[in-house]
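Exercise: predict the fold of this chain.
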Amino acid sequence: MSAAAGFREWLLQKPRVEVAKRLGEYPVFIVAAQGGGIYAANNAARFLARLQDLCPAFRQHLFAISGVSGGSVGSTIFAAALRAQTAPLDSNAVDGKTCPKIADFLAGVGRVQDIDAPGPVEQRVASVLATDFLSPLVAGFLFTDFTQMFSPFPIPAFDRARFLEYTLENAGDRILGSQKGNGDQSNLLRADYQSHWAPGNNMPALLFNTTDAGSGKRAVISPFDFDPLHPKDTDLCVLAAVERTGAGTDQTVKSHSLHIPLSTAAFTSARFPWVTPAATVSVRNDCITSHPQARLVDGGYVENSGIETALDLVEKLNAIKGTSDAPRFRIYLLSLVSGQFGDHGSFMFGDLMEPVRALLSTRTSRTYIALNHATSIDRRPDPEVTQSVQRFPTFGRTDITGLFYSLPLGWTLS
């Protein structure tokens, strides 16, 4: 399934069509969650959970989350908590009070404490984030993975990254143990990645950004394809369970790499050598490599905000505007990021350190270049909007930087 086809089917669900008719257009949200260790995971998961608790209809408008590293893990935790509170698509249909707590506060009825109090989704998220992820990783490195170094054959169960995945999956069981009501009682984190999203299941599509260590390209784990042609020279390669046919090897591609648990897919985006090993995946994807296997590492090596993939997705989705069967819609891109372009620091050790400084600076600057690219969305003319119409900006940036110390996100404890 292509992104455009999946989005059209998602948009044509009856409750969404009815909302689009009443409002004149359907608001669609795409979120980009920046990488940066457990702090980024904590902030992404809590922000999305708080927004869902305040605005129960948010899940009906959230189409996709583009995550990188910790942002991928955080969005996965949010999705697992959201799955435990499964609701029919039309149960939270817009009725003039999409965000009841905020509406009551603005009307002078509610208190600010009501907005600040964690709701059921955020409480589930917090229970997972309270898990100790470091100890299992260290234990796996010192014992099983260290032992594997002396084995001539790889032993997948000894991979220290699996210890992280098992820990996350077990933490997901606590969500189900505390679940009350009619929510789904299956652990989404243990389920096959491909099963987490469908146009009618009322869940966001999780896009996990990784880096192909061999070519340096973005390799995005996605439930749908972006470009059916999938040319070799593109900078975006999609690992989706799709089969393309046509003339030439560039169009004959079948991906087998996605039959993995959701927890594995999320941590593939967060594999930062030497902390965790690169993920070896079996692929037949000419965009990535002509070899049968590829090595995937942390998506932050290419671009750490997830914005570039989100912008590519927005472009594909906007292509269906004006089609006869699709209702009018407007896409809002929300970015959870931190920091800005760095100023010159110390020039200690002179020429000896300049190559290292340049490599590290250019890696982080690509995030802010992508953010500047995203801010230009609102400056582009929209033929469907007249100058007299008041509109919200279609790009919003939410900073998750700490208030006290200016530290790199991955160095910050949650």
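Check your answer against the key: Residues 92-96, 247-252 have pLDDT under 50 and may be disordered.
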